[in-house]
Amino acid sequence: MKQTFRFLSMLAVVATVLVSCQMKEDDLFDLDPANRSDRWMAEYRRVFNNNKYGWALYTDNPTSGRHPAVYTYAVKFDQVYSTFYKSISTVRLPGVAAEDSLVSMYSFKMDNGIVLSFDTYNGFFHYYADQSQYFAQELQGDFEFCLDRFSANEDTIFGRGKTKQLPFVMIKLPVPAPDYQAACDSIQSYYAPYNCSFVCAGDTLPARFFSGYQNLSIWMEDDDPSIDGHLYSYGNLVGGIYFLEPIEYKGVMVREMHINADQSGYDDVNGQAYIIPKPFANYFMQDEEYDSRFWGYSSQGTYTQGEWDKAKNALKRSGKYNPDNLVYVCLSTDGKGNIDLIFNMWYGSGEIHYPLEMKKVSNDEIALRWTGKETHGLGVDLYEAGFKYFVNCIAPKDEWKTFKISPRSGSKMSPGEFQLTDVSNPDNYFYFPTNFRYYHQSIWD
Prior knowledge:
Strand content: 35-45%
Distance between the termini: 105 Å
Radius of gyration: 31 Å
Oligomer: single chain
Number of helices: 7
Shape: elongated
Strand order of the largest sheet: 4-3-2-1-9-8-7-6-5
């Protein structure tokens, strides 16, 4: 009986399936192709226009030598027109830099699927897709997009460029379009540091934002530091970034990161990775950019300034060196752990070097000690003649002097100036711009 029951049950199921599969063409295509296309386009138009604030349009433009750059456009649609708003990338475009918004027409077309076409010229949007521009034509972006689908809650539209096949996404805006655009742009302006670190799976890896390209470079283990690391294209969100291609490292996958509470970096939304400031000590110990660090007389603390005055007076009394000839003083690093205290850099035989030893104490501390050597072409001992006062307040010969490194301006992620403060004497400090390579600041300024 059990076997008979099972057989009858199976037969009933098969019969039901066979009945359900008997479908006619009219069941699948209840409308003719033209009307069916019109219905699909009407659905997309309804979704496009069903938002009082507009959409964040994310699309990728090819770049020379980098991964595609993810551009963000806040755009508002009505039945006929699309309005694009001023962004950080439009303020430098010829002819439209001063405009707050630009209006152009758009349309839906059928071309092996539904295509969104921005078919009248918009100076904000079409500039990067215009084949007539001076830059290489193979790098142009798309202005027609194949629409693949929209989400069930109708707040995200997915597609791809018709020509380049690069991803295209639109996200329904929760705030007015200009406000969203400004918030996205602030990520690029303030939270995209040239140098930083990527922390994941217990490792801290050197990293760098190429914000103009919307690329993040991460140097994985054994990568050559003289060339770019692994490149990831990212887009700006309000309060964060997302990666077009997720970062994969030791089994961890990172797609979206948000600015953390103190705005000192980014946290992975899943809590598995972080972008943190580049350790301040590394700017001196392993600076890939090989930038010298300079400071001027006016940038010194009260103790440091007093020691400079002592040095100047002693030199004058010695008769071996006229302190009025001192024009520049700087720290010069080679990015490999070596550092010199230099006076009158680029002044030939008058350039005075005091090589220092340097060691990393912590991520935000270095220690300095003078090697005891002095090099120049003047034929006299200038250390004993008076330079010893200034040299000793920075790096005495017989002891390590530890300095705390802190950003004096900018943010932890993007420091504008560094201040070195003597841990043993807070009045002994000096500060200087983080990238001051090509010129010096006079010690008298």
